[in-house]
Amino acid sequence: MKRILILALSLLIAQIAPAQQALSFRAPVVSPEINADHTVTFRYRNPKAVSVKISGDFLPDRTVADMVEGKDGVWTYTTEPLEGELYLYNFIVDGERRNDPSNMYMNRDIATWTSFFTMSTKQGDKGWYYETHDVPHGTLSKVWYRSNTLGADRRLTVYTPAGYEKGKDKYPVLYLLHGSGGDEDAWADLGRTVQILDNLIAEGKAKPMIVVMPNGVYYNNAAPGYAVNMFQPTMRNSRSDSTVEIEQSFPDIISFIESTYRVAKGPKNRAIAGLSMGGRQSCSVSRSHPGTFGYIGMFSGVVLAETPEAEAALARQMAPKVAPSLYWIGVGSADGVKVNSLKLKEYCEKKGYPVEYYESDGGHIWRNWRVYLTIFAQKIFK
Amino acid sequence: MKRILILALSLLIAQIAPAQQALSFRAPVVSPEINADHTVTFRYRNPKAVSVKISGDFLPDRTVADMVEGKDGVWTYTTEPLEGELYLYNFIVDGERRNDPSNMYMNRDIATWTSFFTMSTKQGDKGWYYETHDVPHGTLSKVWYRSNTLGADRRLTVYTPAGYEKGKDKYPVLYLLHGSGGDEDAWADLGRTVQILDNLIAEGKAKPMIVVMPNGVYYNNAAPGYAVNMFQPTMRNSRSDSTVEIEQSFPDIISFIESTYRVAKGPKNRAIAGLSMGGRQSCSVSRSHPGTFGYIGMFSGVVLAETPEAEAALARQMAPKVAPSLYWIGVGSADGVKVNSLKLKEYCEKKGYPVEYYESDGGHIWRNWRVYLTIFAQKIFK
Asked: Does residue A375 have a pLDDT over 80?
């Protein structure tokens, strides 16, 4: 048996030329390694490198730390004890950024892949919600719908909660929008929507719900690899704000969802939230379709305007014409777009709308948006 | 507007520390670039590198080619004119393998990420089937089912053809199995199942069908990132052959699918196929559930046995007890496991089963398995 197994593996190795890494006969380097004391050790083998540093969002103030070369040319770095979280990092090898070749976990933000890992120190900490646990799991689907408004078939991501397939219940729907340069994959991949919802629902902390994650860039039909060309997504273009087009075409999405899935209707069963450009869209869509959404979330919402006065006017325009059950605003204390959140909060308060304002540390980053989703999902449809 | 846009981008750049690549201010390097004459140019900027090579499956005999350094430290390589195909490649920088940092398209095979691109030279060439075109698109879902046999909730991938959601038709089902070390993501990602089926169905060359891609490794419930820990998949373990367990638990999958989706039943509406270990499983499952599958595909099927005699006996055991409508065997001429395919073909011929044998160039590689799927999908349910 062993002989044939070795033969078969040898054949495979000879034939899978570009996939050498997984089958390398060098002793494997384990990286990252989460230690019992919640420190994390990173390892990178490169005997020829002169300088290896690590950049990661677990480092204080996001500085860069030196890795130390040991025997065998393996460079290492061990963190302080860390909290449960999804962490991003990369190595800097003689000045060149590269991902950890020993860690196959990477996620893509716009056009950039970054190594990541999740860890939790106890059930219910932040990182715990981002991990898969032995709880009932929902389904994640990539679905195409027709937008007659935009004259195109477009792709969106749908999360249906555990039990959807076999049950008869109708579910409320959260429409969840990504930021500029993102696509319909962003919330599921970077946002850990599936894990967060599975875990919150299993704990009874969120109502079972459908989450719809459309592509919010009107001129892209689908994420890279599922669009008709192999485009490189970018934020560097003048068409990055799809707010008007998404606002006008949003009824196409709602009517597709409500005619395709077992959906509870009416504003008490519809929520909309988004991050950055998607935050602006969630405000704009809810305002231009008054009474459609009972729950509105703006996560680090970006408003682009030429003057402070125009910016303030835009922020007011984003406010709903009909009072929602909840207007939830989340933003990082270091986020440059915080002023928009504060203005919107002020405006909602003046109108007497139920508004909650949540300020977290840090800036315009996914780490915050995962937290906002975790909180917002517990507050809606109740 | 421009002022605020620059401000907003600056804020984002300052805050998205690990995602520097996409937002770098260096002039972007375009790589790969598919030229009008079907040659492809690769570019890689690294002024400090002493030697940069490219390894790719478009090179003759899969050798490695030197890249040439130009101004600005950008290394380039241009291929001969290429046929339509999905190509894999990586750079070798001073002896270290790395992916193309300018190309965000990567796919994962077991634990290895590799840069790729697709190209087609005309409608209907091989590469054309692997690309997304403006045709009706099916849905791709990641679904969990209960396997009572294995005592676990397990994840599988389901492709439902365009029109499934709104229609009432019942569809035949192809069960499609991955190889050792793979998972339920492999066929959709590396195998381009969605694109192949969308395109074949749109052309009328394949019947609209459901494709079910289970996780065929019995001790893994789900692909990396959706299992309960962050495991690194590997072929290097003694439990890599899950044939017996998958054979025994397969009725759990069929009964889940047939009770959850609008499925046409009976052997004329069930096909099973798989690659490598999955080829062995497709044979084994169809044999131990006689009369269940009308169409059986073995793609580069691997049979592990200690002696040539035992190997031959195993190959015979894989043959069905009940004649299927079609036994389709595909294998590469340079594949070390070709002997099993030939023996199985011989056995089927002796029994008088309808058998087709297809031999392609090359070895035990995804490039072949995509071709086999493209052919097999056109032959079933007709």
From this structure: yes
